[in-house]
User: Fold this.
Amino acid sequence: MKNRVSVIIATYNRAPLLKETINSLLTYFRQDFIDSKSEIIIIDNNSNDGTLNAVQEYLKESDIVKYYLETNQGLSHARNRGIKESSGDILVFLDDDIDIDKSYFELCDEAFASADVNIIGGKVLPYNVAVPEWLPKEYYYLASIFDLGEQRMEVNTLMGANYAMRKSVADKVGWYDPNLGRKGIYY
Assistant:
């Protein structure tokens, strides 16, 4: 990968899912196309389920994985902490229950090769569950599903579970408003 990437994962009480996500990411980070200065930043937003213990093995094995405790409760606080701690040119925001596609970072690199591209988002498909047959597609967002097909297109909204932006844009536009977003229970 040509760009230095900071993958930011805000988490709250989802240690088992977080471990699966980290394993998935490390599989791709170990491939040659990931810059050695790229990183996976875990922001623990006051979890009480042993999240730090779950992450400890990765912290010992790899300097790619970094852990920070954010005591101000809320997804916006956690994402802001991730931006603050990041060193990458590209910020990738993923949920703590994501399994990325093997071409994820290559597609990010392609998209950000254009200076006109500042933020991108991707599909969010069901994670280890089937979509209920009775749920109409226009309501998939209620089940955190975002799938507009295979073609690249401009859209007005992205799913918070999977998007990336240039850090320079976050610095210019501003960070997340802590009065907005989820606080506790689930992200």
Notes: The CA atoms of residues 127 and 173 lie 32 Å apart.
